[in-house]
Amino acid sequence: LCAARASRRGAPRRYVLCEVLVEEPRGRQGIEERALGLAVRDAVARAHGDFGLACCCVSFAVKYLNAYTGAALLRCRRDAHRLLCAALPLVRLLESRGQRYPCALRTLHLGGTIRSCQKFLIKYNRRQLLTLLQNCTNEGERNSCSLGKEQPEHAVESTVSKASSVRALLKQFYCHS
Amino acid sequence: MAPPPAAFERRVLRSAAEHHYLRVRLELPDGAARPSAALFKQLVVTALRELHGEVGAALPVDVLTYEEKTMSAILRVISSGFVKLWSALTLLGFYQNRRYISISSCIIWEQ
User: Fold this and answer.
1) Which Pfam families match (chain B) (predicted)?
2) Which residues in A lie closer than 8 A to residue B56 (C-beta atoms)?
3) Residue B96, Cα to own-chain centre: how many angstroms?
4) What is the DSSP string of B10-49?
5) What ipTM did this prediction achieve?
6) Domains, chain B, ranges and CATH?
7) Which of A122, B9, B56, B59 is deepest in the core (most CB within 10 A)?
8) Hey, which CATH number is domain A1-112, 3.10.150.10, 3.30.70.3250, 3.40.50.700, 3.30.750.24?
9) Is B22:B72 a contact under the CB 8 Å cutoff?
10) Greater model confidence, A174 or A25
11) Sorting pLDDT into bands at 50, 70 and 90, what band is A145?
12) Is the pLDDT of residue A162 over 50?
């Protein structure tokens, strides 16, 4: 019965929300989803061999990549999420359009749905914004802070339907602080 | 004088065994050079690395005995890596870049 239910709803998945850290923040904009997927696959193959790669690749996908903030959402089967999480710190190089970017991946959240990851991302971004604003000394820095944060929210909006409230939240938040 | 009662002690291991032991035999085609003990160990590690990557290659595997004449060996592996080692040995198909048939006949002892 359990198996039948699982097959009807599709295989259970896990979503890993991570942050792509690049040496130069400007270089981050050249990164593509495909390049990230290939780099992660490479790392899994190196760490867990053919068996691990086959386990991870069954429904592996890069669901979302924000080139501005570096937030990325990876999907894999629930059985294989441990393999994937263990291999993520081993990603060191991204190759995109013939250019190489030394990078590192930082896992932020592990969720069962895209929705929960999105909620976490919003919360995380708000928290980051708060620390950024607290460190600001003058008005100019504050404005640049908010601009830098609004771009990513714009990108989120295009892919995830419920994100329109995010910008409103952020604006409200910025007005109050 | 009555003999002393036989010393008998029963030990029950409640947790899982710490190590698993495998008896394996390497089968090469006729005329192929027989590997030495060190080469045999390297073969095992190569097999593990191929199937299970760096994680597999880092498993604590020991070659307890190796007989070069019959190419049979006894391997000891930590219990958590037993399935990995067995599967890697089964899927190993190359030796010195040449295809060969390897049937590792496994007899297992649990400690």
Assistant:
1) RNase_P_Rpp14 (PF01900)
2) 48-49
3) 20
4) -----SPPSEEEEEEE----TTPPPP-HHHHHHHHHHHHH
5) 0.74
6) 19-110 (3.30.70.3250)
7) B56
8) 3.30.70.3250
9) no
10) A25
11) low
12) no
